[in-house]
Design goal:
Layout: H1 3-20, H2 25-40, H3 52-56, H4 63-75, H5 79-87, H6 91-97, H7 103-113, H8 118-127, H9 138-149, H10 151-154, E1 158-159, H11 160-175, E2 180-185, H12 187-190, E3 195-196, E4 199-205, H13 208-216, E5 221-227, E6 231-236, E7 241-246, H14 252-260, H15 263-275, E8 278-281, E9 284-287, H16 307-313, H17 332-335, E10 349-350, H18 364-373, E11 378-384, H19 396-412, E12 417-425, H20 436-439, E13 444-448, H21 457-469, E14 475-476, H22 494-504, E15 507-511, H23 521-529, E16 534-537, H24 549-558, H25 572-580
Parallel strand pairs: 4-7, 10-11, 11-12, 12-13, 13-14, 14-15, 15-16
Antiparallel strand pairs: 1-3, 2-4, 5-6, 6-7, 8-9
This protein binds 2'-deoxyguanosine-5'-triphosphate (DGT), magnesium ion (2 copies) and zinc ion.
The chain binds one DNA strand of 29 nucleotides through helix 2, helix 4, helix 7, helix 9 and helix 15.
DNA sequence: GCCGTTTTCGGCCCGACTGTTTTCAGTCG
């Protein structure tokens, strides 16, 4: 495991133990924030450990954390972490995952009912000791029982590509309910995160009862979890939670801001509001009169209808939802000159696609027709190379014939440029799967790792750098090789890859397939900052795969990508000239 | 534990829902 990943785990565990032992919540949060930070880094934190000032320059890292990071880099452990984890049975971490059980209740169960893990919790519930505890009653016990059965699935996140179609179907269904004036999905889905914890839907309506009734009566609902005056939550049979929040139409902008989040972005905005003499909540931006819940006291908001108005009153530019992560979007980095982020219609070319020659389902003709139908000026045929045996990769003879077939197809098909290319394997030592004389025959070369995806970070970086520096390679395909929720993939130093890619004019791929999204959002940001070009490709193996482009665009926007830095947005002439430079 | 164009100490977002409570703690979004 990498230093960053180890430190992420260490600080996460410290946060959990502190929470369970009743520490100051802000101290708990500070640790959780460090853990999140470590997970987001695109370089090895150890490279900063020679000087504490380099560490404390990072927002959220103070003297104490800097000391712990340096200690870890030197000794491989953090003494305070070791002491803390001794204090609490590890099984309690799982108990904490149960919906409805927070630190206070778990502490109580542990200290007064001897609960140390899920097993002992079950026993304590059965024996009746839990019900005798303070603030515990029959209903609470039954709720814990229900949630316990669901404990394993509670923390799971679903892929964007799975969640988005479900959300769109629910929104369309509820839009038809009489009285509904506004309805849209919000939360991590609107922000385009690669995985989604639940589906959040915001609506305004003239008939709340009708909407709640329709919501809780949808087919496929396993359980209604919450049902109040302004919000309801259900769990679908497939384990996904859906939250519906209803707010007045007058408040829709404030409501959308609140429900889109992220939580961290919301908190920074609310702190800013306080400093400016306001109070921000989901009903609007109010003048601060020192009391809570201004919306209930008839206070008139200074802004509430649209997101734009609220950001403006806070003296901020409107922030695209994908950027609302407290990753600099409220700082000068964004606010001084808001970049125009890439959009779906900007994409004019698909530069990574497979045909029946390897493991695709479309012929060359069908692939070209599909790309043309989508309005692209260029499609690259990039079938697998010889080492990818399971994918029916092409040996040199088959590749030569394939190139001929592509040229022949181009002679018949008008309205789109068909490039003869390959997705060549990057072997574990960084060499490519075809010799240079073969690669030189191709209009475009995508080089991708497919095997040895558990290599240690140093080796992985060297391997990918070799491909980036190869004079015949145009694009580094799905650089980490991860499959979301299934395979971790490589952990290269992405900052180093970006620097080399910029120097050698090689594009880094953002593979848009929702299982991959590789490079991921934080990597794209690092690549953009490092001056590298990005290629957004669907890696299409069939016609439907072209539809995954939207997930690539969302991820690209989360990485602050602008059209000029994405080669798929370029006009044909510019793109083709760029490809020819390496021939 | 972190942080600072009014601060190096004293804040740190704000509201809805539930169950158990007779006035609100705990959890969640
Ligand atoms: N102000 C504030 N807003 C919050 C808080 N927690 C959640 N929200 C808002 C912002 C979130 O994006 C939105 C939906 O909450 P979720 O728990 O579903 O989070 P989100 O969708 O961002 O991520 P997820 O993928 O569901 O884990 O509600 C909070 O503690 N304070
Ligand atoms: Mg959510
Ligand atoms: Mg939610
Ligand atoms: Zn491919």
């Amino acid at each position: 495991m990498s230093t960053n990943a180890e430190l992420e785990r260490i600080f996460d565990e410290m946060a959990k133990v502190l929470e369970l032992t009743g520490a100051n919540p802000f101290r708990v949060n500070a640790h959780a924030r460090v853990a999140r930070l470590m997970g987001d880094l695109t370089y090895d934190i150890a490279t900063l450990a020679d000087d504490p000032r380099k560490l404390t320059a990072i927002d959220g890292i103070g003297d104490g954390t800097a000391r712990k990071i340096i200690e870890f880099v030197k000794t491989g452990k953090v003494a305070e972490h070791d002491e803390l984890v001794e204090k609490v049975p590890r099984g309690l971490f799982q108990v904490m995952e149960i919906p409805g059980l927070g630190p206070k209740t778990v502490k109580l169960l542990w200290e007064q009912a001897g609960v140390t893990d899920l097993e002992s919790l079950k026993k304590a519930l059965d024996s009746g000791v839990v019900e005798k505890l303070p603030r515990m009653g029959a209903k609470t016990v039954q709720n814990i029982r229900d949630s316990l059965a669901f404990a394993a699935k509670a923390g799971e996140r679903i892929r964007l590509g799975v969640a988005l179609p479900i959300a769109e179907a629910i929104v369309e269904r509820l839009r038809a309910v009489p009285g509904v004036t506004h309805i849209q999905y919000a939360g991590s889905l609107r922000r385009g995160r690669e995985t989604i914890g639940d589906i959040d839907i915001l609506a305004s309506t003239t008939d709340e009862n009708a909407l709640f009734a329709a919501f809780t009566a949808m087919p496929g609902i396993e359980k209604v979890l919450v049902a109040g005056g302004t919000k309801a939550s259900v769990r679908l049979e497939r384990g996904v939670q859906v939250d519906l929040r209803i707010l007045p139409e007058d408040s829709f902008g404030a409501a959308l801001m609140y429900f889109t989040g992220s939580k961290e972005h919301n908190i920074v905005l609310r702190e800013r509001a306080i400093k400016m003499g306001y109070r921000l909540n989901e009903y609007g931006l109010f003048p601060d009169d020192g009391d809570a819940a201004p919306h209930k006291r008839g206070v008139t908001p200074v802004a509430s209808r649209t997101e734009q108005e609220i950001y403006r009153k806070l003296q901020l530019h409107w922030v695209p939802p994908e950027l609302r992560e407290d990753r600099g979007e409220l700082d000068a980095a964004f606010q001084d000159k808001p970049p125009t982020l890439i959009e779906l219609p900007d994409i004019r070319a698909e530069l990574h696609a497979h045909t029946t020659a390897s493991d695709g389902r479309l012929t060359i003709d069908e692939l070209a027709a599909e790309a043309r139908r989508r309005g692209f000026h260029t499609i690259a045929v990039t079938d697998h190379s010889k080492s990818s045996i399971q994918a029916n990769g092409l040996n040199e003879d088959r590749l030569r014939a394939h190139i001929e077939a592509i040229r022949e197809a181009q002679s018949r098909i008008k309205g789109i440029t068909i490039l003869a290319g390959a997705e060549v394997d990057i072997l574990s030592d960084g060499r490519l799967d075809y010799a240079d004389d073969i690669l030189a025959l191709l209009d475009i070369v995508v080089a991708s790792p497919h095997v040895a995806l558990k290599q240690e970070p140093g080796k992985a970086t060297a391997r990918l750098l070799a491909a980036i520096k190869h004079p015949l390679v145009h694009i580094l395909g799905h650089p980490t090789g991860r499959l979301i929720g299934k395979r971790d993939g490589l952990h290269p130093d992405v900052n180093a890859l970006a620097a080399a890619a910029a120097e050698h004019d090689t594009a880094l791929e953002l593979n848009a397939n929702s299982l991959r999204l590789d490079l991921r959002d934080t990597h794209i940001k690092a690549a953009v900052d490092g001056g590298a070009l990005i290629a957004i490709d669907t890696d299409a193996h069939c016609a439907e795969h072209f539809d995954e482009l939207r997930y690539g665009i969302l991820t690209a926007r989360r990485g602050w990508l602008t059209p000029p830095r994405c080669i798929n947005t370029w006009p044909a002439k510019k793109l083709h000239a760029w490809l020819k430079k390496k021939r």
